[in-house]
Structures are given as C-alpha cells and as structure tokens.
Design goal:
By secondary structure, the chain is an alpha+beta fold. The chain is 13% helix and 29% strand. It contains one helix and five strands; from the N terminus they run ββαβββ. The chain binds zinc ion. The site of zinc ion has 8 residues, from loops.
C-alpha cells in the first residue's frame, strides 16, 4: 500500500493505494490501458473506484459500479 492523491475521494489528502487485482487489470486492458495496464493501482478507500498508472494520474479513470 502506498499513499497517493485520489482525484475522486473527498478531501485533499493522500489515500492508501494498492496494486490492481487481476480482474481489475483485465477491465483496464479492455478499456484503453494499453502498455500502461500492468502499472495500474487502485485507490484503497472503501467504495472508491479510481484506478491509475502508478506514476500517471492523468491516465486514470473510475471503474464501473460493478467493481464497488
Ligand atoms: Zn479514491
């Protein structure tokens, strides 16, 4: 777990991120993750759907509700 800023969580404070699971990575790969797919991490905040490449927040996006 690493602390990172999450653009969709309330409050401007770091959240605990964790590496994306296999299922999450499959979704990322199918939705434009491209060569960045293996580097995706997910916000570990309860109920948060944000995923992003570890070093590139601008390429992140929110997973669908089914991942909540
Ligand atoms: Zn979050």
């Amino acid at each position: 777990m690493d602390d990172k800023y999450c653009p969709t969580c309330p409050g401007n404070k770091p959240q605990r991120f964790r590496p994306a699971t296999k299922k999450e990575l499959e979704y990322v790969a199918a939705h434009g993750g491209g060569k960045d797919t293996p580097s995706f991490w997910r916000c570990g905040n309860d109920g948060c759907l944000w995923v992003q490449p570890y070093f590139n927040r601008s390429k992140g996006f929110s997973l669908p509700e089914s991942f909540r």
